[in-house]
Amino acid sequence: MSRRVMTAVFDREELVLGALRALRAPSGDAGSAPRRPGGPYTIRDVYAPYMVHGLEKAAGLAPSRLGWVCGVAGLLGAAGMLWFETWVSAADWPINVGGKPFASLPAFVPPAFEAGVLVAGLTVVVALLAVSRLWPGRRPRLVHPRVTDDRFVVVIEETDAAFDPEEARRLLDACGAVEIEERVDELGAGR
Fold first, then answer.
1. Measured at the alpha carbon of residue 174, what is the angle toward residues 168 and 27, in degrees to the nearest 5?
2. In this structure, are residues 80 and 111 in contact, taking their beta carbons and an 8 Å threshold?
């Protein structure tokens, strides 16, 4: 399945932030209301060569759940290590060393912390690669050849018949777009 998208290329981060705000702003005409709550245009994705402060908010992107994945994985890793240490020292191989208790929690905390960090880090890497569909051997499909160097790209999805490409082109030109292209994109191919 395919859909039509419009890509706008910018050469400065200030311009792309301004364009995102303009695309999400309700239309200024008195008689026309925005077609959807986030503004008249559906922003499918934004590509940047480096992290831009405020880009997520300007584009209306939902906050990432990767932090929750990391926290839960870290807690599970630490809890699993605490259980393993307690089982080994108290149940499977109890050794009385100088009259100390078999299950000594203070001695178990540093390895449990390290195991939690290790499990959280590995889980985040695997989750990021899975969500981004960046498995080994996959060839990247760039939306613009210079997006990894010095260009910023905004992809707008043409979701309905009310989408006016000329109006969108004028708005993007006014925001300072260097290049604007309208094309058919495969569903999910850019992700």
1. 50
2. no
Question: What pTM value is reported for the model?
Answer: 0.68
Distance CA 1, CA 185 (A): 9
- Written as six digits, the tokens of 19 are 């364009």
Instruction: Please give the helix or strand (H or E) that residue 131 lies within, else none.
Output: helix 105-132
Residues 91-98, mean pLDDT to the nearest whole number: 82
Q: pLDDT for 23-58, tens place per residue? A: 888 764 444 444 445 557 888 889 999 989 988 888
CATH architecture of 2-63+150-186: 2-Layer Sandwich (3.30)
Place of tokens 């981060």: 13
> Which tokens sit at 27?
């239309």
The two three-digit tokens of residue 23, written as one number? 């695309």
Of 6, 7, 9, whose CA–CA distance to 49 is shortest? 9
Answer whether 43's CB lies under 8 Å from 8's CB.
Answer: no
Whether residue 188 has pLDDT greater than 80: no
Beta strands in 51-190 (DSSP E): 152-157, 179-186
Burial classification of residue 169, based on how many CB atoms lie within 10 Å of its CB (0-12 exposed, 13-18 middle, 19 or more buried): middle
Domain ranges of the chain: 2-63+150-186, 66-132
> What are the start-end ranges of the E strands in 48-151?
none
